[in-house]
Amino acid sequence: MVERESAADIEADAARWVVRVDRHGQDPGVRAALDAWLIGDRRRVGAYARAEAAWTHMDRASVLAVQDAPATAATPVVRRRGVIAGLGALAAGLVAAVAAPRLLARRYDTVLGEIRRVPMADGSVAAINTDSELEVSMQPRLRAVKLERGEAWFAVAKDPSRPFVVESGPVRVRAVGTAFSVRKREGGSDVLVTEGVVEVWTEDGRTPPRRVAAGERVFADNDVGMISPPKADTDLTRQLAWRDGQIVLDGQTLAEAAAEFNRYNDRKIQVADARLADERFVGWFLTNDPEGFAEAAAQTFNGKVSQSGDAIVLRGG
């Protein structure tokens, strides 16, 4: 028969967890381990809430004393209980938050063709591109965003005490107060900075974090953990035109342009002529106007447009 943990042991372990999360809370492995610990015994939920309340609102030394002591030492636990004796109501309010951090997280998604602007609790703003999904978790010392799929641009409110970290697969992007976009691709993530500076790294730690400044972009590879050197990008306005529901073409091939329109629409553009696919085009269009683009391209290059089910077919003349 497994011996049930004593209340003193749970209180001591909770204090250790609070300090660990404070120091390494941006590590998904630490958050997952905390979740596993919390669900192992329902008494741990309240213990963690009380420890976090003490850590946030009282002298950290009171909690650190418990972290450094053996789990069986009763004296530091009693002393810490004295420190948090008046925090019962606050701890009760925190129970739901620490019981399952993912339950408090806000999830946002967009359907095909939808572009959504989302204000966050800390004053930051996210613009979420078509067919995207993300999860936002505002924690005491970390603002964590998990980009499940797609693309988003973030205007981050300044808060040096709470870094803003975006997780995109194994790629991490950290900022304090800046503006940047992250696009999750099959093999990695594109990071484009429009204001301030961010740090980009991968969770395997094989590549040192790279600093990326305003006007620069990098690509972080999922498999090899490599991050390309930051490159100046003078085309930021075009690449982020989606925030206003626009696609701006400035010398892209018709094949590339068709792929971009297909991100936003059920009706897909097919460029059926290989020669035509390599032609380059300049123009401004709404994301939801693939027909307008196809007609303009056909007029420019003496082609023709036909409909085939849900496809818009562009051929040479």
TrEMBL record:
InterPro entries: FecR, Ferrdict_sens_TM. It holds the Pfam family FecR. This is FecR domain-containing protein. Residues 107-199 form the FecR protein domain. It comes from the Bacteria.
